[in-house]
């Protein structure tokens, strides 16, 4: 499994790169939920890590748009 991105790595990404990473994480989150529902999920901690990573990216996106509009 892929480890979570460091915050410093996320900060240097462009808006498009952040959007791509967010889409990838949402797909992974869907797959993890599906695996959990069918009883096939082995790494249950990954669900929490992916959720937090999505929150990090959304926070960075909001702060970047606020910085541009300010």
Automatic annotation (TrEMBL):
Starting at the broadest rank, the lineage of the source organism is: Bacteria, Pseudomonadati, Pseudomonadota, Alphaproteobacteria, Hyphomicrobiales
Q: Which UniProt keywords apply?
A: Ribonucleoprotein, Ribosomal protein
The protein's name is: Large ribosomal subunit protein uL29
Task: Return any one Pfam family short name.
Answer: Ribosomal_L29
Q: Single GO cellular component annotation?
A: cytosolic large ribosomal subunit
- Specify whether Repeat is a keyword of the entry: no
Among the GO biological process terms of this entry, one is:
translation
Q: Which GO terms describe its molecular function?
A: structural constituent of ribosome
Q: Which InterPro entries match?
A: Ribosomal_protein_uL29, Ribosomal_uL29, Ribosomal_uL29_sf
* Alphabetized CDD domains for the sequence: Ribosomal_L29_HIP (cd00427)
Protein family per UniProt? Belongs to the universal ribosomal protein uL29 family.
Keyword Ribonucleoprotein part of the UniProt annotation:
yes
* HAMAP family named in the record: Ribosomal_uL29
